[in-house]
Write a structure and sequence with these properties.
Elements: E1 13-17, E2 21-25, E3 28-32, E4 36-37, E5 42-44, E6 56-57, E7 61-62, H1 66-75, E8 81-82, E9 88-92, E10 100-105, E11 110-113, E12 135-139, H2 152-168, E13 173-176, H3 182-189, E14 196-197, H4 199-210, E15 218-219, H5 225-229, E16 234-237, H6 245-252, E17 256-260, H7 269-272, E18 277-279, H8 287-297, E19 301-305, H9 309-318, E20 323-327
Parallel strand pairs: 3-5, 4-6, 7-8, 11-12, 12-19, 13-16, 13-17, 14-15, 14-16, 17-18, 19-20
Antiparallel strand pairs: 1-2, 2-3, 9-10, 10-11
Helix pairs in contact: 1-4
């Protein structure tokens, strides 16, 4: 592992792009959202979306929230348990239930790794709160000025109007939403409809129930004919479940379809997936949130990670004067030294 020399010639550290991010400081290596976790690192998992869940794990103890550990154990073949480390503080990231940012302290500097995050107030969180740090490793999925999300209460109001208009016409509604995160967001706001949910969502909700988070929903009925008896009905499922028999049956019988996603800001989104509507609900920070978060963290250096990392690194430096570096997947052996 490459380490830098500071001005006094002592070892300082490095961010290394190697199976996620590796942070090398004070003779320790912190592996951030890696897909292969090993014994020679302090392993951290920010949340339980599939692209952050390890596919190989040589250790049991992982720094993460209790809910994230239970969700990882549900959604993968590995088994982990939450672990506390004296140099790592867990902070709410506002992304999904159980998601965490990591504040890592060393003798000389501090580091804040956001993982996927959002500062907006939502049903389970007040949103991620900025924390002063020397180095900020920032997720930039929507790091371009064009990505500005409407207030969620306005979008939910618009969605309910659309659902009710369809119900008046005796037309059922299918909302496509990711099984972990957006599905629960929709369930929270549409609890009075007692929606049917796909099996993957039902299983995730069972984990939440263990942590006293409950949703008013129904499992898919065993017989397709039961759907007709409940018409009009509301159904929630992930896009990848479109081949499930209940969804195929519902679409064949004229159900109205929509999806929730931050990418719905693009007019082409609904046409790409053949939907009637698309609503811009995201569990990531938009451009303005990213800028404000950086300002309030006031880091010496910003490392931009994921999404529009190059664009945001340029903006935050040119427009706001922060030293910044994009961390790019196409880089094979690391980026920058502290």
């Amino acid at each position: 592992m490459n380490l830098s020399q500071n001005s006094e010639g002592t070892r300082s550290g490095a961010i290394i792009l190697d199976d996620g991010l590796k942070l090398s400081i004070d003779e320790s290596t912190y592996h951030l959202d890696g897909r292969r976790l090993s014994r020679d690192s302090v392993n951290l998992i920010s949340h339980a979306h599939y692209d952050h869940i390890p596919i190989k794990c040589e250790v049991d103890n992982v720094v993460c929230s209790n809910i994230t550990a239970d969700l990882v154990n549900l959604r993968s073949r590995i088994k982990i348990k939450p672990f506390e480390h004296e140099n790592v503080t867990l902070l709410d990231s506002g992304h999904i239930v159980g998601s965490r940012m990591f504040y890592i302290s060393s003798e000389k500097e501090s580091f804040l790794y956001t993982g996927d995050f959002s500062t907006r107030r939502r049903y389970f969180t007040e949103g991620a709160k900025p924390k002063k740090c020397d180095n900020l490793i920032l997720e930039c999925t929507f790091g371009k000025e064009e990505f500005l999300f409407p207030k969620i209460e306005n979008i939910i109001r618009e969605m309910k109007d659309w659902v009710n208009d369809n119900f008046i016409k005796d037309r059922s509604v299918l909302i496509f939403a990711y099984s972990l995160g957006k599905a629960q967001e929709i369930l929270h706001h549409f609890s009075e409809y007692e929606p049917y949910v796909a099996p993957t969502i039902w299983k995730v909700n069972k984990v939440f129930e263990k942590h006293n988070i409950k949703f008013n929903s129904r499992e898919f009925p065993k017989n397709l004919e039961e759907l007709d008896a409940k018409k009009p009905y509301l159904m929630i499922a992930p896009l990848e479940s479109r081949n499930l028999k209940h969804i195929v049956y519902s679409i064949q019988h004229g159900i109205a379809t929509c999806a929730v996603s931050g990418w719905a800001l693009s007019p082409s989104f609904k046409y790409t997936f053949g939907l009637d509507r698309a609503f811009p609900i995201s569990d990531h920070a938009d451009y303005e949130e990213l800028v404000e978060f950086v300002k309030k963290c006031s880091p010496k250096k910003v490392y931009c990670w994921h999404g529009y990392a190059e664009e945001f690194a340029y903006d935050i430096k040119k427009k706001h004067g922060f030293e910044s570096v994009p961390l790019l997947n196409k880089q094979t052996n690391i980026s920058s030294f502290f």
